[in-house]
C-alpha cells in the first residue's frame, strides 16, 4: 500500500521526480500539478519535488473512492482526510496475508504431522489462521500498542487449548509437561512474527514504531 511504500522509501521524492521525467508527463498535460494519496506524504517532500521537477504536489484524499468528489473542488473534507481501518477493511487483507505465508506453513504442517503427530500439524495451521486472520479481526481489541506484543498475546491464548489438551491426555507427567511447554513457547513467537508483518497493511502505525519493533 501507499503508506508502507512511503515508509520504506519506494514511494519517495526521488522516485516521483524520476517517474515524472521518465513518462514525459509534461508532454501529456498542460498543467504542472500532480495529486498524490495523502498517506504518501510520509515519503515525499513537496517543496523538493517542486525544486527538482517544477511540478506542484497536491495531497488528495486518503481513499481512492473519494477522488471523484475531491477533483470537483480540489478540497478535501474532514472525512476524506480521516484514515479508516474498519473490520471490513481488515477482513479484505486476510487473503493477502494467508497467501503470503501459506506455503511455509503447509510444509511445516506436513513435516510436523509425520514427526510429532496430528496435534502438532494442527498447531501449525491454527498459528497461520491466528496470525493472518484472527489477528486482523481482533487488532483493535488486543492490548498493547506494538503489533509483535499483540501477536504474542494472541499466540499465548491459542496455545492454552493445546496445552490443556496435552495436560488431560495420556503419558507421563514429564512428557506432558515438555509438550505443553513446547506449545506455550513456540506458538506465541510464531503468531507474533505473523502479526508484525501486518504493520505494513495498516494506516495507523508509524515509521519510528516499526523501527522500534525491528530493533527490539
UniProtKB/TrEMBL annotation:
Which segments cross the bilayer?
91-114, 120-139, 151-168, 180-198
UniProt keywords, alphabetically = Membrane, Transmembrane, Transmembrane helix
What Gene3D superfamilies does the annotation carry?
3.40.50.11600
State what protein this is by name. Mercury methylating protein
Q: Which organism is it from?
A: uncultured microorganism
Amino acid at each position: 500500500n501507499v503508506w508502507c511504500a512511503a515508509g520504506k522509501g519506494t514511494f519517495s521524492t526521488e522516485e516521483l521526480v524520476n517517474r515524472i521525467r521518465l513518462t514525459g508527463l509534461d508532454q501529456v498535460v498542460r498543467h504542472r500539478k500532480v495529486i498524490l494519496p495523502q498517506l504518501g506524504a510520509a515519503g515525499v517532500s513537496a517543496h523538493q519535488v517542486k525544486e527538482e521537477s517544477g511540478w506542484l504536489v497536491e495531497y488528495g484524499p486518503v481513499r481512492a473512492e473519494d477522488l471523484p468528489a475531491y477533483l470537483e473542488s480540489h478540497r478535501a473534507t474532514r472525512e476524506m482526510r480521516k484514515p479508516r481501518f474498519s473490520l471490513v477493511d481488515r477482513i479484505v487483507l486476510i487473503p493477502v496475508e494467508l497467501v503470503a505465508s501459506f506455503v511455509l506453513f503447509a510444509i511445516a504442517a506436513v513435516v510436523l504431522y509425520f514427526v510429532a503427530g496430528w496435534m502438532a500439524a494442527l498447531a501449525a495451521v491454527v498459528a497461520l489462521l491466528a496470525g493472518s486472520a484472527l489477528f486482523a479481526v481482533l487488532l483493535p481489541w488486543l492490548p498493547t500498542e506494538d503489533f509483535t506484543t499483540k501477536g504474542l498475546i494472541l499466540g499465548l491464548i491459542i496455545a492454552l487449548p493445546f496445552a490443556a489438551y496435552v495436560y488431560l491426555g495420556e503419558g507421563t507427567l514429564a512428557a506432558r509437561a515438555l509438550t505443553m511447554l513446547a506449545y506455550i513457547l513456540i506458538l506465541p513467537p510464531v503468531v507474533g512474527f505473523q502479526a508484525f508483518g501486518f504493520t505494513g497493511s495498516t494506516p495507523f502505525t508509524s515509521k519510528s514504531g516499526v523501527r522500534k519493533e525491528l530493533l527490539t
